[in-house]
Amino acid sequence: MGPVKRKTNIMAQSTYSSVVLAQRPKANIVPGETFKLKQNPMISESDLKDGQVLVETLYLSLDPAMRGWLNDTRSYMPPVQIGELMRGIVIGKIVASKSSSFSVGDYVTCTSGWTELSIQDAKAVTLLEVPPNGRVTDALGLLGGTGLTAYFGMTDIAKVKAGDFVVVSGAAGATGSVACQIAKLKGATVLGLAGSEDKVKWLKELGCDEALNYKDPQFKEKFKAATKDLIDVFFDNVGGEILEAALSRAKPHARFVMCGAISQYNSAQPVGPKNISMVIAMRIRMQGFLVFDYIKEYPAARKELAQWLAEGKIQRKETIIKGGLKAAEQALVDLYNGINTGKLMVEVKAEDAGIESRL
Ligand SMILES: NC(=O)c1ccc[n+]([C@@H]2O[C@H](COP(=O)([O-])OP(=O)(O)OC[C@H]3O[C@@H](n4cnc5c(N)ncnc54)[C@H](OP(=O)(O)O)[C@@H]3O)[C@@H](O)[C@H]2O)c1
């Protein structure tokens, strides 16, 4: 792979790209059918009203929840409509401002969607601060939605404490890898579950006491042996068979943190665990949550996560797909195939294809 070419000045172009939903998938996203790349007439400072900013997208966050936003069903937010810009959180740079809160060159985050350029109300944009030892992209990972989800799920929903035996599914992903490390910081013993030997190795480097590859043909037996003392806390990112396995190994009064169910998101016929009655038999407290429930507590949580990062107490990995917006659709498909370790994002400004993994 040669050096990454960059568009130096998007404002010099006559159009900019965005991605819209073309068709609702019935199961898996179909590359070339589900989304459509669109060219739009250029926008500039003269299109801004007072209190607005023009944001150029640098990085686009890819999130498992995106698959749910394509379904025309009741959920925690309305579905993306056919022909509508695909929703997404981005890191961007202010290229023009009619707001006293932002200057040209400021790095920001906002939910501008899958677009190279957007006009935003200043109140919908957050100024990005890079902490010591941090980098700009932490705003989508450790200090963004996934890091915060791990933080609130582990500290508030699980109320993890020293001596707990904690199992985390999807453990090598953006949320799971932070959840494992927070549990360790709180004095728990941690078993992480992930889908490859490389991910298992990384989880051990992160400090997990044990890690297992759920694709190993002997996984069931190994999981039973690794949970011989039974589970106090299960932090679930995956659902399906792994949730069923965890229910079968729950201690009385275990806490089950229902964070996500990625194994079911692309299924035309999602399935639940057959042994759900273990919730009764073991008096399990099973609680779902959304990170947005904690919006008022984000600053305090970010402060603590940034402190752990600065002190070297927490690590993170990023998987960055290059190739601009046109790479986003395939990258989202690959998220469900486990292409990423840590946080998956698309570098929107890089035109050459490629993939970068960085600590
Ligand atoms: N409740 C909330 O507010 C909230 C907020 C953010 C995220 N979430 C949820 O948290 C979970 C993780 O999200 P994330 O953004 O951190 O993504 P992520 O874990 O970084 O990426 C998804 C990972 O899921 C794993 N996976 C995919 N299909 C699977 C399957 N069939 N069985 C087991 N594992 C599978 C893959 O890793 P392997 O190689 O290990 O299979 C993949 O790398 C998702 O379920 C998401 O919906 C919830």
TrEMBL record:
Pfam families: ADH_N_2, ADH_zinc_N. It comes from Hyaloscypha hepaticicola. GO terms for molecular function: oxidoreductase activity, acting on the CH-CH group of donors, NAD or NADP as acceptor. Gene3D superfamilies: Medium-chain alcohol dehydrogenases, catalytic domain, NAD(P)-binding Rossmann-like Domain. This is NAD(P)-binding protein. Keywords: Oxidoreductase. PANTHER family: ALCOHOL DEHYDROGENASE, ZINC-CONTAINING (AFU_ORTHOLOGUE AFUA_7G04530), PROSTAGLANDIN REDUCTASE. Residues 32-346 form the Enoyl reductase (ER) domain.
